[in-house]
Design a protein that fits this description.
The structure is a single chain. This protein has a 3-stranded antiparallel sheet with strand order 1-2-3. The protein has one domain: 2-Layer Sandwich (Double Stranded RNA Binding Domain), CATH 3.30.160.250. The mean pLDDT is about 90. The protein is α+β, with helices and mostly antiparallel strands. The protein is globular. The chain has 1 helix and 3 strands, in the order βββα. It starts with 8 loop residues before the first strand and ends in a 22-residue tail after the last helix.
Length: about 80
């Protein structure tokens, strides 16, 4: 089996955590914690792959080849 690597982002809003991936438009996960959102997203990816295989459709290809978090400091 070939591993698939998809970058995900997790955001927090109103005490809930939300995960999404630009490479999997429309797919998201959620949870009360970062880990919960991550696990929810992984389950969504797993179900997506199974659905694609069951329907004989291609599995989405990861598009992101590099991702980084950067910080910027601005003078007032």
């Amino acid at each position: 089996m070939t591993p698939l690597t998809f970058p995900i982002a997790i955001e927090r809003e109103d005490g809930q955590h939300y995960a999404n991936s630009d490479d999997l438009g429309g797919m998201y996960g959620s949870g009360e914690t970062i880990e919960g959102a991550r696990e929810s997203m992984l389950e969504g990816i797993r179900l997506c792959v199974l659905e694609c295989k069951g329907d004989a459709r291609p599995i989405p290809s990861p598009k992101t080849i590099y991702s980084e978090t950067v910080s910027a400091v601005f003078e007032d």
